[in-house]
Amino acid sequence: GNDPGLMHPAFAEALNKCADKIKSIKDNVRTINSKEVGRPTWPMIILRSPKGWTGPKVVGGLKIEGSYRSHQVPLASPVQHPEHLAKLEEWLLSYEPHKLFDQEGKLLPELKGLVPAKELRMGNNQYTNPHYKPLVLPDFGEFGIEDPKRGTELASDATHLGYFLKRVLELNASTRNFRIFGPDETKSNRLGAVFDVTTKQFLGIRNEDDDRISSDGRVMEMLSEHQCQGWLEGYLLTGGHGLINSYEAFIHIITSMFNQHCKWMKMCNDISWRNNLPSLNILLSSHVWRQDHNGFTHQDPGFLGHVVSKKPNIIRVYLPPDANCLLSVFHHCLKSEHKVNVVVCGKHPAPQWLTIEEARNHCAAGVGIWEWASNDKGHEPDIIMACAGDVPTLEALAATSIIRKKLPALKVRFVNVVNLMKMSPTSEHPHGLADYQFNSIFTTKKPVIFAFHGVPHLVEKLVYKRNGRNITVRGYNEEGSISTAFDMTVMNNLDRFHLVIDVCNKIEHEIFNDLSPKTKFSAVYVRQEMETLLTKHKKYIEEFGVDMPEITDWKWDL
Question: Is the pTM of this model over 0.90?
């Protein structure tokens, strides 16, 4: 309709009917066992009214109310067009402000009396501004790998996180304040252990062959990243805790929703009476470097670049190199509040590097030198090999192993970054390293080869204001196909052989005069050997369809 006099009471009546219906549904559910709850038929109001309703009907001979023009500014130039000013006055006076305010512009007492009592106001509702209950969390060390023997043991990082999340569900079963959301990928993303203690929630009609489905499960799945993100955001707003897990390439689908949640959190920080809420946790597994079976369509780590463009007091990005670090990071994320935590991890069996205690310390610091992989202690390093991400860490360690064996006199410092925002200055992000800390780890003059999980320009952007900035970043360069896992890194120059070539180039063109004759004149031979291995690799995968044994069987042995 288009008559406000008729529409307002009709709408009020519809609201009352719907409120009564919702109350009836909720009262009825409370009398039923939660495992037997069916899908309710929720009431829905369909309102049809003119676009731009009650605004100017016609301006300049063009229809405004009831047309697309009302979506724009209907009276854009009252200064240049006096007739627009008259229309604006007519429009505003149509709301009869003299019946709402007194001569001093104050709301009339009889209208002010309609404001609900403080305890009934929306902002004081326990569900719209809740005091949330923290999760009961176990010691993550119970689910880790006590001593992985520097890559000798292979394990799925995400699988171990699944063990941890299973225990989180058990410890919080009575409060029922933790949920997992995902687009039909919880098991695919190796979090399947949670189904030992819960199910997927589904209130619709179930078939006999349905697997792990009930009406009161703590996992919510639907093949729609939009829907899952919306569910999670709504759940957090009522004081619940949770995470969304997704393939890395497809998390872009919820970018606009992510934007609005970050903006909302930023504004909440400016409102004194708003309570902090549990953090929004985004887990990205099935990532860019392990899509050899899916190929180019499933490769895109660019979401990280979008994340770091948001307010620094809200966003966090973590790239754990192994299972123990993933457990440490996620334990921290589930304890945090009023943040957006983005965590990238692998799900396929991969080398494990740090003990549980080493992982605790390393993740607490966010960035650190791995002494066991370095040979520069007590000396000035000749070159720094840095990395962030599980696959980049593997390739950087393999490259370091080659360098230390082929060029034993070269002093190599190995640096791993878990908390990506450590690369920023403290002036740009609260987790950023102070300049003296950054310079101590990366130096101000020595070349840095940085193997990065995402697109290279992201790291280049983060270190732009740092001293020296002698950093060569290798990462994803939009190259991919259905191939082998190692070949994915080769296509993007992130593999161990290209990293060693980068080091040889630095030796010949930047630090030549600082090195012994044996080292600097050996670099050309090492580079040539790496180029030969790259050619051998291509021939091998073309013939056999799998990676060379020296890749698949490689172990850290220094």
Answer: yes
